[in-house]
Every structure is written in C-alpha cells, then in structure tokens.
Protein 1
Amino acid sequence: MAKQETTTKKKHALSFWTDMKLWKQILIALIAGLVVGMILGPPAAAIKPIGTIFINLIKMLIVPLIFVSLVCGVTSMHDMTKMGRIAAKTVVLYLFTTAIAITIGLGLGALLQPGAGIDIAAAAAVEAKEAPTLMETFVGLFPTNPISAMANGNVLQIIVFAILFGLAINIAGEAGAKIRQFFEWMAEVIYKLTAIVISFAPYGVFALMAWVAGTYGLDVLLPLGTVILAVYVGCIIQAIVVYGGAISLLAKLNPVRFFQGIAEAQAVAFTTTSSSGTLPVTMSCAQKNLGVSRGVSSFVLPLGATINMDGTALYQGVCALFVAQAFGVSLGMGDYITIILTSTLASIGTAGVPGAGLIMLSLVLTSVGLPLEGVAIIAGIDRILDMARTTLNVTSDGMVTVLVAKTEGEIDEAVYNQAHVLEAEDIPVESPPAK
Ligand code: ASP
C-alpha cells in the first residue's frame, strides 16, 4: 500500500516536471545549476560533460538546418527584388544596432571607470590578431567546395551556396519542383530533430551553469566586478531600451511578447556562450513563438549569428576603456571614433563561438595603441562576460528578424501576440503561406 503511494507520488512529481513549459524548465535548471555550482565549487566541473553533449547536439543541427531551411526560404520567395530588399534591410539594421551597442559600452566604460585601481603586473603577453582585408572577406564568401564549407561549418559560404541552389531550383522547371518538394519534406524532419534536441535543453543548461558557477567563485569575480557590472548593465540597457524601443516604435508590436518569445534562445545563449550554437533554438523561437515566416527567419538569423554581435561590440567598448584606465592611457575623441569603427568591424568578423570576442578584442586594442596585456586580464573572467554578450547577440538577431519580417508582411501577428512559448514536441512543420 505504502509502496503504491510512493509510486503515485513519484509519478506526480514526474508529470509536474514533464508537463511544465520548456522555458520554465530551462529557468529552473539555470537557477538550480547556479545554486549547485556555488555549493559544490570546482568539483561541479564533473557535471560539465552533460552540457558538452547538449552543445554538441545543437551544433550537429546547424549545417543541415541552415542549408535546408534557407533553400526552402528561397524557393518560397520568388520575388527577387524582395529578397534583395530583405538582405539590405538586414545588413543596415545589424550595423546600426552594433554601432549603438558599442557607444553604450563606451559610455558605461567612461561612467563606471572599471579600470580604476587595477593591478596590471600579473598580465601576460598576448599576440594581436591580424584582421583580414575587406576584399579577402568578400571573396571568401564564395565556396570552392560546398561540402567542405559544410564540413567546416562555414556559415557564410553555406548561406551563399543555399541561396544559389534555391535560385536554381526556382528556374529548373519540373525537376526543380521535385527537388523543392524534397527539401520541404527534409525541413519537416529537421525541425522534428531540432525539437528533440531542444527538449534536452534544461539538462544541458543545468550542467553548464553548475560548471560556470563552480569554477568562477566570488574570489575570481570581485576584483573585476565593475567590468562585469558595466557589461551586464550595458546589455540590459541595449536590450530593453534599444530593442524594446525598436519593437514598439518601429515594428509597432508588443515588446513584452518579444522578450517572452525569445526567452528560450536567451537561456541557451547565456549558458552555451555560442550564438551559432544557439541558432537552431533561435530559429524555433522566431518561427514558433514570434510568428516570423520561415523565409525571413532562415535568412536573417543565420546571417545574424555570423555577423551581428551587438553584445560583443558593447563588451569591446567597455574593455577598451577598462584597459586604457588600468594602464593609465588617455584616449581622445579620434580614438573613440576608431574604437567604434574597429569594434563594429571586429564584431562582424567575430565567429559566434565561445570566447571569440576576446580574440577580436586584441584587434580593437591595437587600433588605438592600447597594450595587449589587457586581453590577458580580461581572459580570467571572459566566460562570465561572454554569457551576457552572447545573450545580447542572440536577442539582437531576434529583434532584427522581427523588424524585417514586420516591414515585409512576413510575420503572423496572431502567433506573435499569443506569445505561446515553444513546446518541444510542437515545432512548426508547415511552410508559411507563400507570399
Ligand atoms: N560568444 C559570442 C557569440 O557566440 C561571441 C563572442 O565571443 O563575443 O555570440
């Protein structure tokens, strides 16, 4: 009798968890991971492999997901001028939000003075990274071998190949129609696979959070507390004021709904610190929770995960001022403008992977003659900063996607306003109505 009762209780507890919305599960996992990591300290790293498996699984989705959904996107959008317009709007918005982010970063760096009173003696030498020229970057967009672009996960080359492939399908008559149908079916299967992987998110998030909290105790964080504060406050201002403002004033949509809809992608970005890795989740959020068409989201989001890094730019602004203050270098107006320009370019060149922003920081520091040893100081706490900047990077991608979709009539406002949050088993499999 007693045994039966225990079994029923267990079942209740289990269904309480499994019936819970995914975003709530992720939030609970995040907080639980933080608490467990704080209690266990460094041994919490033992749980990290669960998080690594989760990251591997979402990375596994990136290439097939971008390729298949972008091909479907192009074949569902026959209007070439519309595609060009979407591309232009996307790039302009990405650059514009990035420039605002870095300005906020510089403002907070000047206001909060994170580098005041820092001991610079412990710093180790770091090598600067060479920036590729603009022409090299442009030529590099075109793959010589699409299979190797996919094998290396070169997102920009995959985007170019997918667009050309989709265009070829559109003009290939009957054969094209068959291949198009094949890709539609393929997309359904990949979206199902995405749903399976995303349902694993709470466990991955828990493990990663416990590892971070266990590894970076308060002792490590306190001396650079103001840098952390400046980056986090900056990210929150950019998200709420700039993105919230753009969603309500430009897109005339409810910003609260936006933040609800993007929450899962934010939680995954926060714990994995990879906007490319988060891409499958961001795409699900955009389509399922925010009602953005597959065509727009499958173009704007992969591009954003590669070139749009507002959080990274903001962080570079704060860190440049931190290094200048810590080393007693004074910067003039020209230096600030140089930092804005190089940070914007550096953030475009930053890969959406953990720690990439730190490497690009050396580029920004070199541009205004700041000592590269600054990078070594920041490196100690970079993971904590990466969590905030990646979250902002992903939020920004989502905001631009909604804005572009709204202006192109590619958003289903009924879905957006419901803000019905993605359930793992319930990813959309239908194509949006062809416009
Ligand atoms: N981790 C960041 C991202 O994936 C890039 C960076 O390091 O700034 O978006």
Note: The chain is about 75% helix and 0% strand.
Protein 2
Amino acid sequence: MRLPQVIALGGSLLRPEESENRKIWFGKLRQLAVHIEGNSRKLGIVVGGGLPAREGIDLAKNLVSDPDRLDEVGIAATRLNATIIQQILLDIGCNVAPEIPHTTESAGQYFLDYNIVVMGGTTPGHTTDAVAVSLARDCNASDCIIATNVSHIYDKDPRNFTDAKPYFEMTIDDLIKLCGTDRLAPGQSAVVDPIAVSIAAKNQINIAVLDGRDVDLIEHALDGKEFEGTLVRS
Ligand code: UTP
C-alpha cells in the first residue's frame, strides 16, 4: 500500500463569502479525489471549522470560562465541515471512510480499507493543522500540506503590513521563531498553529503552506511538483 498523503483544508475555504466560486471549488476538489484514487493513492483530508467554529465559540465565550470547553465547540464545527466534504465525495462514489474519525490513530486504521479519510478535530489545545501533522506522522508521511486562504507564510501579517514579505522556503526552526510555541486561544487564527509546527519539528515532517482556494495548487503539491506557496523544511 502506498503511504497516505495528508492535507489540512482550512475551514475558511468553506466560507459563505466564497460562495460564488463554491461550486467550482467543490467540483475541482472532487476531480482531485478522483485523480488520487485513479492513481491508487490514499489521501487524508483534515477539515477546519471556519465560520461555524468562530460563531459557536463566540456564542459560548461569555458563559464558558474553561478554554477546553470552547475548544470542544470548535471541534464540533470542524466535524460538521468534515462531514460536508465526506458526503460530497461519497456522492460521486469515492471510496471514503464512512465515519469521521475522532483520533488520528483510528484515521490511520481506516486507510486499510478506504482510499480517502476525512476528519476534523480531535482534542482541545490545538487546531486542525496539528491534527493534520499528527495524521501525517501516524501514516509515516514525510510531508503535510496546509491549504489555507493566504498564498504564503509572510514575515508579518500581510493584511496589516503592505511591506510584508512572503517566504518561498524556510526551515522549521525559522517558523518556530516566527510563530512561537504557545497554544492558540479557542478560535484564534494563525497562518500555522504553533502546536502543529512543534509536532512537525519533532517528527521531521515538512510542511507546505499554500492557497487552497486554488485546488490546482493542492494538486501540484500532492503530485510532488513545484508549487506556489511556502515549503517549510524539517
Ligand atoms: P480550526 O482548525 O478550524 O482552526 O479549529 P483554524 O486553523 O484557526 O481555522 P480554519 O482552519 O481557518 O478554520 C477551530 C477551533 O476548534 C478548536 C480550537 O478552538 C480551534 O481554534 N479545535 C480544533 C480543537 O480544540 N482541537 C482540534 O483538534 C481542532
């Protein structure tokens, strides 16, 4: 069996603002799944919580003091989004695991019988980036793709700084210096979750960060071709 490949699909990719392009994007994602299956490859897709996670966490925030409880709200949203992707792929006959696994270990087991495994979050304390890197580790994959809604990792936030510079390649130590190692607050955004970076560093997993709004970029990275984005070498 070929080793599964793993991508994290940021929940922001499912946002309502993107709805005009949604049909095309889902269509291309389906084509990608068919391409992977057609080449007897396996793919783990870890889906983020996006808007339902932010909304759910905001609703509960003033009433819940334990951050782990707010994280549980976020995890529920990631599983909702994962179910949407899972059902869309099942509907065209892809060989997708029928359950949304709650651990990366059980996701790894599903690869024995299925080509595609879709999951969301696992436990409090990290985001789905960390789940994706953990799944890559458990599948002995050397790389993990993080598909988000920015084109690269930047030296500063490009939304606030017009002179922000993209990295095309960097080392994992550079990324640790850039993003630190602290746990993010429930619902807090970062280009890459520091916990995911620590797991990648510990297990020598390379991370590719790219703009998942363009499914071709995901396909290039999965096919091992040169891709537009940031390659973080571990
Ligand atoms: P996401 O994985 O969606 O966060 O988790 P993100 O990467 O910042 O955002 P996307 O990918 O653009 O959507 C949403 C929230 O769910 C909780 C955390 O509170 C996180 O902020 N979460 C998620 C967990 O606690 N554990 C998990 O395994 C996953």
Note: The helical segments are 19-38, 50-61, 67-91, 104-110, 128-138, 172-179, 194-202, 215-222.
